Amino acid sequence: MLPSALSHCLRFLVSIFALFLSFPTMAAWELNMPKGVTPISETVYDLHMIIFYICVVIAVIVFGVMLWSIFYHRKSRGYKPANFHESTLVEVIWTVIPLIILIVMAIPATEGVFAMYNYDDSEVDIKVTGYQWKWRYEYINDDIDFFSTLTTTTEEIHNQQTKNKNYLLEVDNPIVVPIGKKIRFLLTSNDVIHSWWVPELAVKKDAIPGFINESWTLVKEPGIYRGQCAELCGKDHGFMPIVVEAVEQEQYDLWIQQKQEETALRLAQAAKEAAQTWDMDRLMASGKPLYEKNCLACHQANGEGLPPVFPALKNSPVIKGPISEHIQIILHGRSGTAMAAYAPQLSDSEVAALVTYERNAWGQNSNETVQPSDVTKLR
Amino acid sequence: MNETTSISTKEVDTPTTEHHAHPTGISRWLYTTNHKDIGSLYLIFSFVMLFIGGGMAFMIRAELFQPGLQFIEPEFFNQMTTMHGLIMVFGVVMPAFVGLANWMVPLMIGAPDMALPRMNNWSFWIMPFAFSILLSTLFMEGGGPNFGWTFYAPLSTTYAPPSTTFFIFGVHLMGLSSIMGAINIITTILNMRAPGMTLMKMPMFVWTWLITAFLLIAVMPVLAGAVTMMLMDIHFGTSFFNAAGGGDPVLFQHIFWFFGHPEVYIMILPAFGVVSQIIPAFARKPLFGYKSMVYATASIAILSFIVWAHHMFTVGLPAVAELFFMYSTMLIAIPTGVKVFNWVSTMFRGSMTFEAPMLFSVAFVVLFTIGGLSGLMLSIAPADFQYHDTYFVVAHFHYVLVPGAIFGIMAAVYYWMPKWSGFMYNEPLAKLHFWLSFIGLNLTFFPMHFLGLAGMPRRIPDYALQFADFNMITSVGAFLFGTTQLLFLYIVIQCARGKGEPAPQRPWEGAEGLEWSIPSPAPLHTFDTPPKVD
Amino acid sequence: MSQVHNSNVPNYYVPHQSKWPIIATVAVVAFIYGIASMLYSSKIGEASATPSWIMLFGLGLTVYMLYGWFSNVVQESQSGLYSPQLDKSFRLGMAWFIFSEVMFFAAFFGVLLYVRTLSIPWLGGEGAKGVSNLLWPNFTAHWPLLNTPDPELFPGPSATIPAWQIPFLNTVILVTSSFTLTLAHHALKKDERNKCTLWLLTTVILGIIFLGFQVFEYQEAYNHLQLTLSSGIYGSTFFLLTGFHGAHVTIGTIMLAVILVRIMKGHFSKQKHFGFEAAAWYWHFVDVVWLLLFTFVYVI
Ligand code: HEA
Ligand code: HEA
Ligand code: CUA
Ligand SMILES: [Cu+2]
Predict the structure, then answer these.
(1) Are B383 and A44 in contact (CB < 8 Å)?
(2) Are residues A313 and A248 in the same domain?
(3) A129: helix, strand or coil
(4) In terms of residue numbers, what domain contains A45?
(5) A to C CB pairs, distance under 8 Å
(6) Same domain (yes/no): A365, A250
(7) For a Cys-Cys bond, which of A310, B188, B228, B243 suits A305, CB 3.0-4.6 Å?
(8) For this structure, is B118 an active site residue?
């Protein structure tokens, strides 16, 4: 009874391996690594398959021999034990053969490493900065600078709404890259270590605060490629996805132009708004959504934060204290804490709205209003 | 192993009377200097921690059963992941092996006790305190450690909850305990062997522990150094892991993994030793290639010091470093392969039976090899850029840890339990325990390979929809595997309470070694006069 | 207590139950828990006196435990319970303990090596990760590091401690102390008690002088050079290495002082004096660490 059970289970294992073997045809099942759309991703995929098959062969041989003796060399079959326990020859053989196998594996692997480390001659340079919990992209040569955050709603996450197809893998501002061009990423972080990973590009590189790591890619096919942060970076590590849109060169140029115009427009708009005087209703109305988008993750919807790491804002000394200090903190952050500088992301009127909101929401009703011009002075 | 430890039973001292009037009650355990008592304490402690750490795995798996957040918040999820890893590694596997060493090393080398019995007691009693401190952090304001068991700076320094201070001192205490335990074991093995037991006649379990103890003494202080620097960065304004002052967050990872990689071999070498005792016993055939086993173990240990950065392929190491660590890591497959081949050759043309210890050992060989082979895949640097920090890694290390370390411990418990308690455990139930565990664990951890390859990052409380099916299977497997361990608890308690056949001196037909030359249960004091080994 | 001696083989002494380990556990845990609570409450800004009492309790208990446990061991040793085999256990234990200390310091020297050869050049724009300099445009690599990448957060020191003044003097002192200790050992082996006491006393005094200079140097650093724990990685590594070394010198000095008292009480014999040797090994180890430290922290 027992032997058959054992052989059953081994057969089960073998059949799982067989399943594994038929990978490439089962791409739809998402059992295997994606082949990807870049030279590196293809190299990696091939390497992965080679080592995988080697491992399967080794496993089949080792387990085969073992299974065979488990089956035949058992006491219940009356098998008498042999008494050999040493053989220098076989020991040498099974040291040398694995060594050879390893060398065979090491050659393409070494080539792969060199290919990955060749950052020269890039045509587009993008600086990627990790923030708790969003990404910032700066197109170094084109003066484009924007943040990219998750757009999946809290309702979806908390199962109060059906989840859409790209659940957790969707952002407000995807990065757009041209196909067929070598793109270099300069990765860094504003706070803790993050890791920028898009499986189909086979790019995964850690974003280390204070240092810059380089990586590159060359996308062959247009498409939308999704990835995620791959290094534990705190509470919302699971909620900082990456979306890359690879497009034809013309479209890319168009996008760049659009983005630049957008920026100019936004600046003009901001300047216009900053010159206006805002009343309480307008400040509060635009403050709430801004707060929910930018600050809620840490300071929570009710303003009570998650102390002691993320302080409560409601009735906090800063909120009760001088307005200028409040503005300063939002603009420049507190270095060495999760409180990032929001100056690059928010316009003066937005900061004014936020400050007003934080001083009046959650039943505080301080009745103070803050004008964009107050912010401009402190920027 | 047969000829190496054949013993002349005549000279073996089998005391029938107690030398000391033995105290009972709590003071027996608090003041004990007896290696068997201390061994039992370690094993019980480890078992308790297994249920705590396993309970945390339950919470992880419950949350991941479906996409979306249902039971716990991300903040708490991270604490569960961290604590689960820490407890399993430092609270379950290490103490269990130290417990086995305490029980078995003196019996296997014919020593009256451990070399430094009082320090032995000290090493043990620090553990429950250290882990109480560690667990208490969960109830502090801001929660417990939430930065993974690898506690990378600056998430674990500047951005950590205040309870991190307690975490750091908990690690210090635990390290103190491990170092003292290791010093004791190494001294015992080097100094207390019965006359005639040369190093190359020592049982494999003793050999693997000798080398493990060396690894422990070499790397636990490095871990202590790492957490000390964390403490200073948090409280005293230093900038070891902060670029603004000239330090480097990656430096932390180098130090951590210089400890961390040898640590994983600390968790597997004693299991290698256990399996090397059990397979020959149930194959009724001497261990194949004893000498090469010893050399392989030593090679693994030496190599383990120069491979650490394979955990850091994506942190942006210079290319030469990348290559160096890739090659050195790959090399470890060779000595490990030698061990696997030797076990298979020991079974080959043996006369095997499959009692519970053997079942666990056979499964160990198969499943550890699967985990080792996925480790080899991880060691290929370019490929690791895709595998790193995904569930593929989680699959890898659970395959080497659960059917590796944990199965090694369970095999050892079944194998030596009759000697400890004087009673046979319930064999049919033990076999049931094995099969349920075997199925449960493969169901749990095999699909993780697919999840990882398909792109699911680790340490996330919620995931994209395409990962839903396999996560569900994994969670079901986890519940099966986890609840099965209640059966293990039952079997062990029954056996310890004397519900079972009385065990003969040598319950296993093919078992060899000094431990089988004394009665079952082993009297409190054994080998007061050393036996002679020839 | 002891085993029944029923053969010519000297039995290995397995002590009976002992209360010391559990006291030691409580002592160490209380001490460490107290420190942790002190740091914790200062971090969250809730000052309270309890933690420091816990710490002091732990410290007191530790002293009591050390005294009691060691008296116990000394008694056993004096009453001849210890066989040569047991003596070897103690030796092995001490040797491996020192090895663990070596690894502890190795980690810290590794840190120094890493920041000097890798991270600082990278931040300054050299080597494989030199692009990092884009983030710190005003920073250039140099050692000793007087200007940190972010001088606002970590203002650098105005100067560092010159090697060839007090540190050199301290080197001479420690090396000399190793010699005097060896002389004491030789004297003990010849059973020249007075000579031994004298040399040992000299060693202890040298240790104390060393520590005195070290304290002076720290004051100098803090008060005149702005060289502090928070003056960037130079200060961090400087105080880490010299601080832990200093702590070890302190422990070593205490150990030697205890041995000195025991010598004066007439403990130890010409052949058997492991307590002395253990302290001596420790002292030599501390000395070697200093030589490395002097070379890599001060000179180069
Ligand atoms: C018991 C614990 C244990 C053991 C024994 C191992 C064994 C190995 N591990 Fe594993 N590992 C872990 C525990 C362990 N690991 C843990 C806990 C982590 C994650 C830590 C974290 O990030 O949280 C990890 C992570 C980890 C990584 C980092 C992955 C990443 O984060 O990106 C790598 C990369 O190289 C790796 C490699 C290996 C290798 C090459 C071995 C080798 O020793 C395996 C050797 C064995 C074999 C190869 C099989 C048998 C051999 C043969 C049958 C011979 C023939 C074979 C050939 C010639 C190919 N491991
Ligand atoms: C020896 C080590 C060891 C062991 C045995 C295990 C055992 C298990 N592990 Fe663990 N695991 C690690 C070491 C280990 N793990 C490490 C180091 C990490 C990395 C941590 C990190 O990322 O920092 C990790 C991470 C980890 C993750 C990834 C978490 C993440 O990335 O977010 C998961 C997810 O499924 C997991 C699952 C499990 C399961 C289901 C088991 C099962 O085998 C557990 C089985 C359960 C039991 C044996 C207990 C049975 C208890 C009962 C039946 C009682 C019921 C409970 C209560 C009454 C409360 N583990
Ligand atoms: Cu950012 Cu994880
Ligand atoms: Cu490793």
Answers:
(1) yes
(2) no
(3) strand
(4) 34-116
(5) 24
(6) no
(7) A310
(8) no
